[in-house]
Amino acid sequence: MADIDTIELVKDIDVDKYKYGFTTEIESELAPKGLNKDIVAFISKKKGEPEWMLEWRLEAYRRWLQVDEPTWAKVKHPKIDFQDLHYYAAPKSMSGPKSLDEVDPELLKTYEKLGIPLREREVLAGVQGSKVAVDAVFDSISVVTTFKEELAKAGVIFCSISEAIREHPELVKKYLGSVVPQGDNFYAALNSAVFSDGSFVYVPPNTRCPMELSTYFRINEKKTGQFERTLIIADKGAYVSYLEGCTAPTRDENQLHAAVVELIALEDAEIKYSTVQNWYPGDKEGKGGVYNFVTKRGDCRGRNAKISWTQVETGSAITWKYPSCILRGDNSRGEFYSIAISNGRQQVDSGTKMIHLGKNTSSRIVSKGIAAGRSDNTYRGLVSAHRKAINARNFTQCDSLLIGDKCGAHTVPYIEAKTLSAHFEHEATTSKISDDQMFYCQSRGLSQEEAVTLIVNGFVRDVLQQLPMEFMAETQKLIGISLEGSVG
Amino acid sequence: MNVAVNKTPAELAYDGMLLPHPRLEDWKWTNLRTLIDRPYPPRIAVTALPRDVERLLKRDPLAMIAHARIVFVNGLFDKAASALPAGGAVKVTQQLAPLDNTDEPVLEMNRAFAGEGVHIEITSNIDAPVEIVHVATDAEARTIATRHRITIADGASATVLEIHLGEGDYLTNSVIDVALGAGAKLDRVKLEIESRDAIHLAHARITLGRDAVLRDFTLTSGARVNRQNATVNFAGEKADAKIAGSYLLSGKQHADTRLVIDHQVPKCTSREIFKCVMDEKARGIFQGKVIVQRDAQKTDGKQSSHGLLLSETAEFDAKPELEIYADDVVCGHGATSGDIDHNHLFYLRSRGIPEPEAKSMLIAAFVGEAFDTISHDDVREQLTRFAETWLVDHKETVR
Q1: Where are the alpha helices (DSSP H) in B114-190?
Q2: Which residues of A fall within a CB distance of 8 Å from B316?
Q3: What is the pLDDT of residue A310?
Q4: Structural domain boundaries of chain B?
Q5: How close A456 gets to chain B, by Cα (Å)?
Q6: Which of A444, B175, B196, B329 is the most exposed place for a label (fewest CB within 10 A)?
Q7: Residue A42: how many other CB atoms lie within 10 Å
Q8: What number is the ipTM of this complex?
Q9: For the segment B191-228, what is each residue's pLDDT rounded down to a tens digit?
């Protein structure tokens, strides 16, 4: 009985109820459709970039022409016409706001409508005590960065990437593309050629970043691609925790989002990167929605470095995303915690790569996939140990929960051990909410709705615990919204 | 997806047939274009001396157990060396329907070059094992392709042993189709102890009827390059399959198993257990995939693959995949890779057991779980002995 009810509940999950699906009427400046050298030069010029940056972009564009679009992921979509997109869209009134007064009131309303996904409304409204520094990226442009001064006191640089290219060229030159090179893959090359903005973080040696840093992305304009680039560098002994959130308006056509995130952790440094991705997933029949094709990679470059990825993926029509760690430094550590919820006709192909190169490196992967509706949810991951990665350790756990009989859950792990002292453990399970679990909860007086919520929250608990406080509340709410609909 | 490239000498010897390369997902870790580094022309007739055949047959550790024996020498049926069953419940014919067109390289190669093969039909319960032995004698490099079919009638049961051995440089291509009727039971044991210069390519296609029970075990220890594909299709409800395998590899051996379990109907159970031991520069690969189709509710599928590396330069790669479209299922997989537990070794050494013996004991214990799939006691015992002495044996041959 319980399973039938559960199926019923999930049928009711209405993806049309996408809460963040509003458009903001802001005049924006658009580049002409299509992609060619001139567009790349146009973007570079718009951003007032130096010559070397333009060269870098053009090199990426040349690489992009040479690489093929990847087809190995377990996702299906009509061929993307890359010449039918705007590669640059900027809210017109936004030319480097100094204070909130300069922010377009329409934009502020946008944040209001968003509820409190990242508490950035309060941040933007200047509420004291909410210690999250936010860099908001609207379409292609970084509109506001808060708490800059306080961060500067600690020596932390937190600004948009375009500003970093102008103000800190030595850092950008040194690190940009050093983890994800221009020609790394099709979408990374595309991003490198046309990226319009993104966040830049540099934490100086032996500094603990005094607050959580956060970026908020939103695609607003029609027929645009959003290509943001994030570069985070934690110098020796530094620590930084970074949050990222995304939403998009409801649109009939698909929007493309191809971001690149590069993390660099030097000796004894630690970077914690958390994402709540809630792009518009498309309607019930799979019309519209964001294509989220993202390359995220972290490089533990020094001894004892640590990089931790935590992601909550609830949105996007298609997700293609593999946050990875290169464990180059001895004793370095990589972590990946993921919750991927797919519903409607969403397709998720996500996972991680842990590449063990240094001695005594360790990694941990915990992935929880929940598939409902007619969605497909795939975990795809690689754990590899190089010949010299003595005493590499990995533990991987991939659990999938299926709700309904029209969805699919898949696991595609790759394990490559090239040395005998590498100890790898991998386990995966697939199941549904069992009748016993439901019976147990209900016999103790919980309603069906409460029981499902309890069980699903228990299922993802390992990952939830890894999220910073600000995000944990938001995530529970997000999961709650889906479940609410499902039981309603 | 084949790229336009110059054909390799091996490909030219195959009338220009293209060999699989790592850009094909299933061949990611086994690049036959480079591993088959010399031509193995097909359809080359080789005369084998009876005494060579006799000498090679003695290497078969299961020889004394088999009741009926079907011998293939260099891909051709050898009536003199065979001991055919006296009729009754076992029927052996040489009639085989031609292979269908596929895009699977091993099957394609077999379709183009296969010589002879047998169709074994089992119609009731057979206690004594039936053995198919493939012997290759030392001669010029060539391709030896065989194809067999085993049919187990409804309610019948049997043990079928399949042995591949030989000496010299050759390439074996072996395709076997197995069909189990309703309630049928088959114990299939394959032993691959080919010449260390040989290449072994195999493909097994198994279909299970309602309530059928399959116990399948493959021991891979020979050949410099080994690639074994197997597909198991559940066509009837409540069937039960356990597929196990073990690698005992050393030197520069390369072994790759690609196993696809396809649950098409409800209420079936599948278990896969692979225990792979790699020494020196050997490389072991396991690629397993469990598919649970939309209708296959109440499926119970578990898969585990474990690598044991004995040297710094050995390698284990695994890709245990799940592809699940039904919700009321219990599926899982586990994969591990590591070396011998030093505490275990220390324990044995402290009790006076010399290191090679202690290691051998631990290796035998490690692969033991896979060997337990074999129901036939004598067969299991013989193969366990093979595993126990393997480490010492191969170290000696090297020296």
Answers
A1: none
A2: 415-417
A3: 92
A4: 1-35, 40-339
A5: 15
A6: A444
A7: 16
A8: 0.88
A9: 999 999 999 999 999 999 999 999 999 999 999 999 99
